[in-house]
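Reviewers of the previous submission asked for a worked example of the structure-prediction workflow described in the proposal, so we include one complete record here. The input consisted solely of the amino acid sequence. No template or homolog information was supplied to the procedure at any stage.
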Amino acid sequence: MFLGFYWSWAGAVSGLQLGMVTIPAFALKDTFVRLQCKYRLEPGESLYSVKWYKDGSEFFRYVPKDEPPAQIFETPGVDIDIENCTETSVAFGPLTYISSGKYRCEISGEAPIFQTVSHYRDLTVVTMPNDGPKVVGGRSRYHINDLVKLNCSFGRSKPPAVLSWFVNGEPANETFLRGPYRDVDGIDDLCTTYLGLEFRVQPKHFKSGDMKLKCIATVASKYSKIREERVEGMSPQRTPALESRDSAIAGDSRADRVQAGSNVASQNQLLLTVSLILCLCNALKYNIR
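From that input alone, the workflow returned the following structure tokens.
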């Protein structure tokens, strides 16, 4: 598996043309790669050989007239998969760190001239952790003027990762960054990279009440992993408003209940007074008779 590659169309050389050359710029450790070197010949011309070199040492040769046409030369870091090699491509793997180097293909025409064209490209073997960046120090909610203090770490990788912080999708202000710092492991020189983020929260940092903080780790400019933290925001002005609204709602409810109780008591007292008056009237009427 590889994400970076290089291809080029070279110019013609009197009957022999170097076509598309494909060499990955980066490839993951323990994977297989295929290098390609295509060519074109003028009518009447024929191919003599296709040769592949790593750091100047030949590791694969294809000569159509030989039997067998393919020949392998033992080279550290290049374990040829002969079943998947052709006159225009060579496959090898699994890759190790010593597989990194300068790879060159060389194509030669047949006698008597043996015209030759070649092209090269560097290949770098990369180690990429399975897990994404790790972010520590965050909180689920921030208020205006709170201090955001996070740390993003990623590793172990080779080459070292480049870490980037984003606030709501925009690159963080450089004054917010702390680092980067790196810790290199003695085994295979694998590296863990750290980058801090520190700033005071301002109203502009909240989008619809939320703030998104994202750390991106990039290795060899091609492989990326992302970790995003989403937090809620609340300004100091909003907090009293919420408390006041809650208190106001509760106060109104109590006031309604008290007022309703007072009305009921007044009505009961009025009925009692009327009843007493009626009783007195009846008593007087009885005495008169």
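The longest strand covers residues 16-28. We consider this example representative of the routine output the project will generate in years two and three.
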